[in-house]
Every structure is written in structure tokens, then in C-alpha cells.
């Protein structure tokens, strides 16, 4: 927009005129995000760093020290292992997070200590089986038909 506001024309009416001309030309058609809800809740207090937080979430970055981030990841992995559909999947989840825990124990990063040992895979699988049997008993399905339990 290189056009200047003519003298004597109120600013509001000049802006409204510019907007209506742009709408007529189709300048507002097919804008990114058109038709989607606003990304942040309007009832939340304004956060000056909203764009930084959104960028970090989009890039998968964390502000936690590496040890604390791994603690959280280990907790999430344990819950994912308990919810895994098969024993093999549960073992794989726990084994993968154990590798990360062992690496961090051998090469501790700066910051707080990890404060976590690798999980006992067999103990997690025992707990997985117990939870699975409990769910099946609650659902009324036959626990003896556990063909996917020992999928190792």
C-alpha cells in the first residue's frame, strides 16, 4: 500500500475504504489460518512470550534441564509400557528408555542429577500382565485366552 491518506479525510473512513477495496480485489481470500479458531484462548491473561512458547512446542524444544526432561520421559514411557497392546511393545518401550537412562548415568549433563535407575524390564512386564488381567476380569473376558500376553 503506497497510497497516502488524502488531507481532510478522516482516518477511520480512509482505512475502511482501503479495507473494502482490498476485499473487493480478493486480497483477504485464502489467507493462512482462515476459518480456523484463534490459537489462544481469549480469556487467558496475555503472555508476552506466547510466540516463544509456541515455537518451542512446534520445534520440540524444552526449557527443562536434560536430566529433568529424561525423568519426565521415563515416567511417560512407564505409563506407555503399562498401556501397551502387547508384551513385546511394553518391553521395547522400557528397553528404549533404559538405554537413555544408562547413557545419562554414564555421561551426566550439567544441572541436577538424574536420580533414576533403569527400570527392571521383567518387573514392568509382570505389572503389565497383572494390569492386563485386571482389565480383562473387569471387562468379563476370559483371562486364559491371553494369546497376546507373551508375545515375545
Task: Give the structure's gist in a few sentences.
The protein is mainly alpha-helical.
Span from first to last CA?
67 Å
Major sheet, described briefly?
none
Strand content: under 5%
Mean pLDDT: 84
Structural class: mainly alpha
Helix content: 40-55%
Structure commentary:
The chain contains five helices and no strands. Helix 3 packs antiparallel against helix 4.
Break the fold down into its secondary structure elements and pairings.
Layout: H1 11-25, H2 50-59, H3 66-82, H4 87-106, H5 121-139
Helix pairs in contact: 3-4, 4-5
List its traits.
53% helix, single chain, elongated, 5 helices, 152 residues, mainly alpha
